[in-house]
Amino acid sequence: MSDATHDQVTSASDGPVLQVRLADADTTRAFGRALADLLRAGDLVVLTGDLGAGKTTLTQGIGAGLHVRGNVASPTFIIAREHPALPRPDGTRGPDLVHVDAYRLSSLDELDALDLDASLDEAVTVVEWGAGWVEALTTDRLEVALLRPRGGVAADEPPESDGGAGERVVTVRGVGERWADADLAALADVPAVAG
Predict the structure, then answer these.
(1) Can you count the helices (H) and strands (E) in the chain?
(2) CA distance 70 to 12
(3) What percent of the chain is predicted at pLDDT more than 90?
(4) How many CA atoms lie within 13 Å of 15's alpha carbon, on the beta-carbon side?
(5) Residue 111, phi then psi, degrees to nearest 5
(6) Confidence check: pLDDT of 177 > 90
(7) pLDDT of residue 186 exceeding 90
């Protein structure tokens, strides 16, 4: 049984758009795992959403789906973390994951200092708070917006938490030739808990 509700798949001028309702943090991670199946080295994923919307939670699922080393946690205070790919059960190895948090960046010079374009072709790069900062890195990207309709973080959760409870609405938009014919509808049937 799925805890994800597929709302719509449409086509924008740049590529497909998918909107999905996710029941909680576990389903958000499962959605990230499913999204990882579509990603390959060179892909840029730009995440937007308020504090507690689920950006890091989604990235944890992407990391699990890519089978990378290390705990995927918010890189807020160190700005960027690289997670090398581990061998999969079949012996193959996928792309590394570069996880960036642009929240504390105050200039394009600070972004340039991260040298993201050096690893862009070899890794999947996920940038939280990246809108307006990273679009110049490549003409192709996935824009993922997360919204918690009933508010962000619950009163008893720390402000850096993505929270466990609460529905999220995720909108995925493909931009550029890479995503023009992508089948985002495959993301609509997310299992309740990633296995």
Answers:
(1) 4, 8
(2) 36
(3) 41
(4) 21
(5) -65, -45
(6) yes
(7) no
